[in-house]
Design goal:
Elements lengths: L3 E7 L2 E7 L1 H11 L2 H6 L5 H10 L2 H8 L21 H16 L5 H10 L15 H10 L1 H35 L6 H28 L5
Antiparallel strand pairs: 1-2
Length: 216
């Protein structure tokens, strides 16, 4: 993917904005389903690695259902057997890569999920056509990016908890601040507190929607 310049007309003048590869990729991921991305070839090759890097965990999980290996019972083909000699395992995993990974439409998503949430070193397996050794090397090279991706994955859950807490606060304020039993001199103050709590809840709701990929 390359950066592109798009024209945006303004009042009486024409200004230009520059879209980076990341801008384009985020827009692509936010407006297309994993199935559509796979069908269009966006989850393979170098561009696939970039696109998969912008996907959320749930999108990557959804993409895995479209993999060439998704219906196979030959799960052991991706894992090294106990005490299997190097030569035998290396030959066997190359066969696995050729059979399942080489033409898989979601190979990049498979690899991204493995890099972002790796198994224990002794349990690593072929993922996205990449060997265990190469996965470890890639994870080390991209440690900062992967940490940021995991943070994005956690954001919706954390924001949902904040939103629910704010909703409970609004309910509590409503119960204690509204009613004929509240003295008139306190009503304006109470109204201001309740309005502030409702505004905070609305902002948290918008933030949560953005974090989960929905427009606010």
């Amino acid at each position: 993917m390359t950066s592109m310049t798009a024209a945006r007309p303004t009042q009486g003048t024409a200004s230009r904005i520059t879209l980076t590869s990341d801008d384009i990729t985020r827009e692509l991921v936010s407006t297309h389903t994993p199935a559509a991305l796979a069908e269009s070839g966006y989850l393979t090759g170098p561009d696939g690695h970039t696109v998969a890097g912008q996907m959320r965990e749930h999108q990557l999980d959804e993409a895995l259902l479209l993999g060439r290996c998704s219906t196979t019972n030959d799960v052991d083909a991706f894992y090294r057997r106990d005490e299997e000699p190097d030569e035998q395992w290396h030959a066997r995993r190359e066969d696995t890569i050729a059979k399942y990974c080489a033409r898989c439409p979601i190979a990049a998503a498979c690899l991204e999920l493995a890099l972002r949430y790796p198994e224990a070193p002794q349990d690593l397996a072929v993922r996205g056509g990449i060997t265990e050794e190469d996965q470890l090397a890639l994870a080390d090279m991209e440690a900062e990016r992967l940490a940021a991706a995991r943070e994005r994955d956690r954001a919706p859950y954390e924001q949902r908890a904040m939103r629910l807490h704010a909703a409970r606060q609004v309910l509590g304020l409503a119960r204690s601040h509204i009613g004929l039993s509240v003295k008139p001199e306190y009503r304006n103050k109470n109204h201001a507190e309740l309005s502030a709590a409702v505004s905070k809840l609305e902002q948290l709701r918008k933030n949560h929607r953005r974090a989960t990929g929905w427009a606010a």
